[in-house]
Design a protein that fits this description.
heterodimer, A: alpha+beta, 7-stranded mixed β-sheet, 20 helices, 24% strand, globular, B: alpha+beta, 5-stranded mixed β-sheet, 6 helices, 15% strand
Chain lengths: 789, 165
C-alpha cells in the first residue's frame, strides 16, 4: 500500500496540498518567454506558399521573382529539402497492415490537402517573406478531391504508393454478439457524426531552428511538449548525431497534444537552417494554424446495444469510420484515436459480448491525430447516448440504468471485453457522488415544473474511463521511438537547496509545481528551496515528457524515487558527520533530525557546506553523492485507467435552437491527488474543450475539400459568457503500481463533457420527437432535428 | 516596402521615438521593435484578446492598430501595469486562484480585467463573464479567471468602504 506517500500533517508535507504555481508569477507579469518571443542574432524568418487545392499535380513552380525581392535570402522547394531529409512514414508495427504514404517536408509531385505548404521563403522579416510568397507562381493541375470519408473508402487510391485509401482496419470480437442480439428483449441503434475540430492553442506553432555548421550542431527552440521526441526526429531525419541536437521547449502557449506531432513546416525550417547555416524562425499565423495544425475526431459511428428485460446490457456492436486526412501523422500515427475509440466503448459497463469494426480512411484534408482525450469523447458519447436511448425505451431513469449495468467497484481487477486491464475503478462511488452533488431529484422536480411553462431543461449524465500513465505497450511495441520512461536529476546546492531537472514538461498544467511539491515533500525541505527545470534536452535527462496524462503518474513517481535516493545519500553523509546511524535520522523543515523524537541535530545547509567545502573533515574515503540521477518506467498494468462521471444541465430554446449551458458537474478519480487546485483547473479546462466540441467547434469543409471557416472569426471557440460554472468532486483510488499512486487527470474533463451535453440536450427534447446524434449540436442542427427547418 | 514614418509615443511612461513601416501593427511594434513581449498575438484579427493593451487608458487590440496610429498616444502594456503596481491585487488573485495555465492569454486577460475594474462598476459573475467575451482562454475553463476578478472586485469595494469608515 502507498498511503505513506502523503502524510498531510507533518512539516513539508506537500503532496495533496493546493499550493500555487511559482512559475505563474512570471507569466502574470508578461515575463513569459515563448518561442514566439525569441530573437537570435542574424535570425531570418520563414513564410510558406500553400496549396490552394485539396488535391492536385504540381506542374511547375516559378520562384524567380520571389528570389529577386530585396530582403529574401532563400526560396526552397520540395527537391531542395528532400535531398537532405529522410522521408517519414506514420505507421506503427503492432497495427497490422497499417499503411501511410511516405512524407517529405515539401511536396515533390502532388499536393494532398488545401493549405499544404509547397514553397518555403526565408527573408529578413516575416513581412518580406510574405511579400515574396505572393510572387511565387505554383502551377497545379487540380485533381478531384476526396472529401467524404465513406466515398474515399471505395474510391481509387489517391496516393500512388498505396492500393486504396484505407490506412488501417481492424475488428474486435469477443464472441456471442449475434446470439445476444437475437435473444435481446430490447435493442437500440444509433448513428453518429462527430465533426472535425482542432486544438486552437492560443500560441500558434512556433520554432526557431539554429544550425551551426562549424560543430554540426542543431539547436531547435521549439514550442512542443515532447522535446526528446523531436531531438530524435531531427537527428535521424537530417543525419545529425543525436547528442548534437538540442531541443529547447521554453514557455509553451498551450499544446493539448497538438504540438507533439511532426509538421511539414517545422521539418522544412530545420532543413532550411541546415542549408543556410543561420537561425530561422517560423511562427504559424492563425489562418495557417487552421489548415496545418492537426485536426481531431471526424468519426461516423453506428452503435447497437442489446439489453434484457431488466435493462441489463448483454452486448454491444459498433462500427467506426474515422477520416484522417492525406497522411497518417508521425511518429504517433493517426490510427491511435480510432483504436482507442473501439477499445473504450462500453468501458464502464459489465457485459462480455462486444464486437467492433474500425476503418481509418485517407482523404484530401489536413491530418487528424491525437488531441486531448484521444478517442475518449467518441467512445463515451456513443456508449452513453445508447445507454440513455435504452433507458428511454425501458422507461428507466438514466441513473437507474447505469446503476444496474456498471462494473461493481468490488469486482476488480478485471479485463474489459476489448482487452483493457482495469486495476481498480470506482464507478459506483462516482455515480452516487454525482447524483448527490447534482442534487438530482431536485433538478428533476424543477425540470418538470419548468416544462409545464414551456421551458425545456435537460439533464444529462455520462460515465467515463480514461487512459493514463501509458507504459511501453503504447508506442514502444509499435516501434516508435517515444519513451515510456522519464528521468530526473536532483542536485543539492552548497546552501542546502535542491535543483531538479526532469524530463516531464510544462505547458501550464503545473508540472514544475507538482514535481517541486513531491521533491520537497520527500526530502523534508521547504518547497521554495526546490528549483525545477524542464524542457531542454541538453540539461534534463531523456524521457517521454508530458502527454497522455503521464506527468504526475510517471514524472511524479520518477521525482519521488529520485528524491528518496538523494535523501538516503544525504542521511548517509549526515550520519557520518553526526556519528549516527542514517536509519535513526530524518529530514524535516530543512534540518537533519532524530527520526523518533524530531530533535534537530544539524541543518541541511550545514551538511551541504561540509560535504562540498570541508570534505577533509569527513572520514577517509567518503565520497558524498550529492547529485542523483534516476529513471523510472511504468511496470505492472499497461495503463493506469481512471474513471469518473459528469453531469450537464442545459436549457434548449426550441424556437431558436440555442442552448444555454447552465451548470456542469464532474466527479473524477485520478488516484492520489498531488495538488487539488491544479487538478480542478485541469478538469475544468478539459470540460470546456469538451463543451466546445459539443456545441461550437467544427472545421467545416466544402465538397472540394476547402476549409470554409478557417479563422477565429468563423470557428467558434467557447467564451467565458457561454460557459457555466463547473462543480468538481474527487474520489481517490491510488494505483498500487507506484509509490505515489497518482494517475492522470488531463483528459478527464474532455472525455465525457460532450457526451453529458448530448444526453442533456436529448433529455430536454424528450417528447418533441428529436434525438441529436451529431456534434457540434448547433442551433441549425437542433432545429432540423425538431423538424422546424 | 515604402518609406518609414517617424512616430513618438509614450509606452509604459517612457517616451519612444521610432521609425516604423506604415504597415507595422502596434502589436508587432511593441513585441519586435521595443521588445515588450508581454503582449501576445493569438489571432491577429481582433478576436482572441491576447494582444490587448491600454491606449490612453482604454483596452484596445494592438493587432488591429497600426503603430503609426498610436503616434502621440500613451500606450500601456502588462509590463507597464506591473511596474506601476496598478494590477498587484489582480495578479495576486490570479496567482492564488490558479487563474492561468499556459499564460499566453493572461496579459490580455489582465488588461481586460483592469478595464472592468477601472470602469467603476461592480459586475457580478455573469457581468464578468460577459465582459471577458473578447478574451479567449483555452486552458482554464474561465471559472478561475471569473473567480479571481470577482475576488478583486470585492476586495477593492471592501477597501473603499474601510477607507470611508
Amino acid at each position: 500500500m502507498n498511503a505513506f506517500a502523503g502524510s498531510i500533517d507533518r512539516p513539508n508535507s506537500y503532496i495533496g496540498r493546493s499550493v500555487s504555481r511559482p512559475n505563474a508569477k512570471r507569466l502574470l507579469e508578461g515575463r513569459g518567454r515563448y518561442v514566439t518571443d525569441l530573437v537570435l542574432p542574424r535570425m531570418l524568418h520563414a513564410a510558406f506558399v500553400r496549396s490552394p487545392y485539396a488535391h492536385g499535380k504540381i506542374v511547375s513552380i516559378d520562384i524567380e521573382e520571389a528570389k529577386a525581392l530585396s530582403g529574401v535570402r532563400a526560396v526552397f522547394t520540395g527537391e531542395d529539402l528532400a535531398s537532405i531529409c529522410a522521408p517519414w512514414t506514420g505507421t506503427l508495427d503492432h497495427f497490422t497492415n497499417m499503411k501511410s504514404p511516405p512524407q517529405v517536408p515539401l511536396p515533390l509531385e502532388k499536393v494532398m490537402w488545401s493549405g499544404q505548404p509547397v514553397v518555403l521563403i526565408v527573408a529578413d522579416s516575416r513581412a518580406i517573406a510574405e511579400d515574396a510568397a505572393e510572387l511565387v507562381i505554383v502551377d497545379i493541375e487540380e485533381l478531384p478531391a476526396l472529401a467524404d470519408p465513406v466515398e474515399a473508402m471505395s474510391a481509387a487510391a489517391m496516393s500512388q504508393e498505396l492500393a486504396d485509401n484505407i490506412c488501417f482496419a481492424t475488428k474486435l470480437d469477443s464472441g456471442g454478439v449475434e446470439e445476444a442480439f437475437d435473444a435481446a428483449d430490447t435493442t437500440v441503434e444509433q448513428s453518429f457524426i462527430f465533426g472535425r475540430h482542432t486544438a486552437v492553442t492560443l500560441e500558434p506553432r512556433a520554432i526557431v531552428a539554429d544550425y551551426d555548421p562549424s560543430e554540426n550542431r542543431l539547436t531547435a527552440h521549439h514550442a512542443t511538449q515532447t522535446p526528446y521526441q523531436f531531438q530524435d526526429v531531427y537527428s535521424r531525419h537530417y543525419g545529425i548525431p543525436e547528442a548534437n541536437v538540442r531541443v529547447i521547449a521554453p514557455d509553451i502557449g498551450g499544446s493539448f497534444g497538438m504540438k507533439l506531432h511532426v509538421y511539414h513546416e517545422e521539418m522544412a525550417v530545420v532543413g532550411a537552417s541546415i542549408l543556410l547555416g543561420r537561425p530561422i524562425k517560423y511562427v504559424a499565423d492563425r489562418m495557417e494554424s487552421f489548415v496545418s495544425d492537426i485536426h481531431a475526431r471526424d468519426h461516423r459511428v453506428t452503435g447497437r446495444l442489446a439489453l434484457d428485460r431488466d435493462g441489463r446490457i448483454t452486448a454491444m456492436d459498433v462500427d467506426d469510420v474515422t477520416a484522417i486526412g492525406a497522411f497518417s501523422s508521425y511518429p504517433r500515427t493517426s490510427a491511435v484515436e480510432g483504436n482507442q475509440v473501439i477499445r473504450l466503448m462500453g468501458a464502464p459497463y459489465d457485459f462480455s459480448s462486444y464486437r467492433a469494426n474500425l476503418s481509418v480512411v485517407f482523404q484530401n484534408k489536413v491530418q487528424t491525430s491525437q488531441y486531448r482525450a484521444v478517442g475518449h469523447p467518441i467512445a463515451c458519447a456513443v456508449t452513453e447516448s445508447l445507454v440513455d436511448a435504452a433507458a428511454r425505451e425501458l422507461s428507466l431513469d438514466p441513473f437507474e440504468i447505469r446503476e444496474r449495468n456498471l462494473i461493481p467497484d468490488s469486482s476488480y481487477p478485471r479485463t474489459s471485453p476489448t482487452g483493457y486491464q482495469f486495476e481498480k475503478l470506482s464507478h459506483q462511488v462516482c455515480l452516487a457522488r454525482l447524483k448527490s452533488i447534482m442534487n438530482y431529484d431536485a433538478l428533476r422536480a424543477e425540470q418538470a415544473g419548468l416544462r409545464q411553462k414551456g421551458i425545456l431543461r435537460g439533464i444529462g449524465i455520462a460515465l467515463f474511463v480514461e487512459i493514463t500513465n501509458p507504459s511501453p505497450a503504447f508506442y514502444g511495441v509499435g516501434g516508435a521511438r517515444i519513451s515510456a520512461q522519464d528521468g530526473a536529476i536532483l542536485k543539492l546546492t552548497p546552501s542546502g537547496e535542491v535543483h531538479c531537472s526532469i524530463s516531464v514538461t510544462e505547458q501550464g498544467q503545473g508540472t514544475e509545481t507538482i514535481i517541486g511539491q513531491i521533491v520537497a515533500d520527500q526530502l523534508g525541505i521547504d518547497r521554495e528551496k526546490v528549483r525545477v527545470m524542464t524542457g531542454d534536452t541538453d540539461t534534463t535527462p531523456h524521457g517521454g515528457a508530458t502527454w497522455a496524462c503521464r506527468g504526475a503518474g510517471i514524472g511524479g513517481e520518477t521525482a519521488l524515487q529520485a528524491a528518496r535516493k538523494l535523501k538516503a545519500n544525504l542521511l548517509a553523509v549526515a550520519g557520518l558527520i553526526l556519528q549516527a546511524r542514517p536509519g535513526e535520522l530524518d529530514i524535516r523543515a530543512d534540518w537533519i533530525v532524530e527520526a523518533v523524537t524530531g530533535q534537530q541535530r544539524i541543518s541541511l545547509a550545514e551538511v551541504a557546506r561540509i560535504a562540498f567545502f570541508r570534505s577533509d573533515t569527513l572520514p577517509p574515503e567518503t565520497q558524498a553523492q550529492l547529485s542523483v540521477a534516476h529513471h523510472y518506467a511504468p511496470q505492472g498494468y499497461p495503463f493506469a485507467f481512471t474513471n469518473g462521471a459528469q453531469g450537464c444541465l442545459v436549457e434548449v430554446d426550441a424556437e431558436t435552437g440555442f442552448v444555454k449551458i447552465l451548470k456542469h458537474w464532474v466527479v473524477e478519480d485520478c488516484g492520489r491527488i498531488i495538488n487539488p487546485l491544479l487538478v480542478d483547473e485541469q478538469v475544468r479546462g478539459g470540460v470546456v474543450q469538451g463543451l466546445g466540441a459539443a456545441f461550437f467547434e467544427e472545421c467545416l469543409y466544402n465538397e472540394e475539400g476547402q476549409l470554409t471557416n478557417g479563422s477565429l472569426a468563423d470557428y467558434l471557440v467557447p467564451m467565458a459568457c457561454e460557459m457555466p460554472d463547473i462543480e468538481i468532486s474527487h474520489v481517490e483510488t491510488p494505483t498500487r503500481d507506484t509509490e505515489l499512486g497518482a494517475k492522470g487527470c488531463g483528459e478527464a474533463g474532455t472525455a465525457a463533457a460532450s457526451a453529458a451535453a448530448m444526453n442533456a440536450v436529448n433529455d430536454a427534447l424528450v417528447g418533441h420527437g428529436a434525438v441529436l446524434t451529431q456534434i457540434p449540436m448547433t442551433p441549425t442542427r437542433i432545429l432540423k432535428a425538431l423538424g422546424t427547418i | 516596402m515604402s518609406g518609414k514614418v517617424e512616430i513618438s509615443l509614450a509606452v509604459n511612461g517612457e517616451t519612444i521615438e521610432a521609425l516604423v513601416a506604415p504597415r507595422t501593427t502596434l502589436a508587432d511594434f511593441l513585441r519586435q521593435d521595443i521588445q515588450l513581449t508581454g503582449t501576445h498575438t493569438g489571432c491577429e484579427m481582433g478576436v482572441c484578446g491576447a494582444c490587448l493593451v491600454l491606449l490612453d487608458d482604454r483596452p484596445v487590440h494592438a493587432c488591429l492598430m497600426f503603430a503609426v496610429q498610436a503616434d502621440g498616444c500613451a500606450v500601456e502594456t502588462v509590463e507597464g501595469l506591473t511596474l506601476r503596481r496598478a494590477i498587484d491585487d489582480l495578479q495576486k488573485a490570479f496567482h492564488e486562484r490558479n487563474a492561468l495555465q499556459c499564460g499566453f492569454c493572461t496579459p490580455g486577460m489582465l488588461v481586460s480585467a483592469y478595464g472592468i475594474l477601472a470602469s467603476g462598476g461592480e459586475p457580478d459573475r455573469d457581468g464578468i463573464r460577459d465582459a471577458l467575451s473578447g478574451n479567449y482562454c483555452r486552458c482554464t475553463g474561465y471559472e478561475s479567471i471569473v473567480d479571481a476578478i470577482e475576488t478583486t472586485v470585492r476586495q477593492r469595494r471592501q477597501h473603499v468602504e474601510e477607507e470611508k469608515a
